[in-house]
Automatic annotation (TrEMBL):
<comment type="function">
    <text>Accessory subunit that is involved in the functional assembly of the mitochondrial respiratory chain complex I. Complex I has an NADH dehydrogenase activity with ubiquinone as an immediate electron acceptor and mediates the transfer of electrons from NADH to the respiratory chain.</text>
</comment>
<comment type="similarity">
    <text>Belongs to the complex I NDUFB10 subunit family.</text>
</comment>
<keyword id="KW-0249">Electron transport</keyword>
<dbReference type="InterPro" id="IPR019377">
    <property type="entry name" value="NADH_UbQ_OxRdtase_su10"/>
</dbReference>
<dbReference type="InterPro" id="IPR039993">
    <property type="entry name" value="NDUFB10"/>
</dbReference>
<keyword id="KW-0496">Mitochondrion</keyword>
<keyword id="KW-0472">Membrane</keyword>
<keyword id="KW-0813">Transport</keyword>
<dbReference type="Pfam" id="PF10249">
    <property type="entry name" value="NDUFB10"/>
</dbReference>
<keyword id="KW-0679">Respiratory chain</keyword>
<dbReference type="GO" id="GO:0005743">
    <property type="term" value="C:mitochondrial inner membrane"/>
</dbReference>
<dbReference type="GO" id="GO:0045271">
    <property type="term" value="C:respiratory chain complex I"/>
</dbReference>
<protein>
    <recommendedName>
        <fullName>NADH dehydrogenase [ubiquinone] 1 beta subcomplex subunit 10</fullName>
    </recommendedName>
</protein>
<keyword id="KW-0999">Mitochondrion inner membrane</keyword>
Length: 171
């Protein structure tokens, strides 16, 4: 194959993009707007975003390992201390979610044991079923009959009433 091509034999097709030809000497205002936008809005935002990303890469924060400090129970809050009420309510909600997950994990273990053991499930899964009974009884004692909209105050009153009934039954 020869090194120099015959340009007349193989003509290059014209480009489809038209070449902009300026007919005026007035500059395009869009160019000024784009430049102003870049320096006024885009550059500072990009700089701040990159700075935050660099800072975050240095200090990794794993949100799924968040640990909350234990706060006083609702019974330990002083009267009129609304911040303490709020913190105790948030703590109660976290505790309830943890207890729900514990019951769910034990329930899944029992289901897996039943699936694995088949017809021998009653004798081979007795420990897991006993644990499930204990966990669900503890959950029911603490959170049962509170409903979806239960709160820390209602739970505390339920525990108080249960303790009073136990004292009456003991006498």
């Amino acid at each position: 194959m020869p090194e120099d091509h015959d340009w007349e034999a193989y003509k290059v097709p014209p480009t489809r993009t038209p070449v902009s030809e300026r007919t005026t000497s007035v500059p395009n205002p869009v160019d000024y707007f784009q430049t102003a936008f870049n320096y006024v809005l885009d550059a500072p935002v990009t700089f701040v975003r990159e700075w935050i990303e660099r800072w975050q890469n240095k200090n990794k924060f794993y949100y799924y390992h968040q640990k909350f400090r234990r706060v006083p129970d609702l019974s330990e809050c002083l009267e009129g201390d609304y911040l303490c009420y709020y913190e105790a309510e948030a703590q109660w909600r976290r505790d309830r979610m943890v207890d729900q997950e514990i019951v769910e994990i034990v329930r899944e273990r029992v289901a897996a044991c039943k699936q694995r053991e088949g017809p021998n499930q009653f004798q081979n899964c007795a420990k897991e079923m006993e644990l499930l009974a204990q966990v669900t009884k503890a959950y029911q004692d603490r959170y049962g009959d509170l409903g979806y909209h239960g709160n820390a105050r209602a739970c505390l009153m339920k525990q108080k009433h249960r303790m009073m009934e136990e004292r009456k039954a003991a006498q």
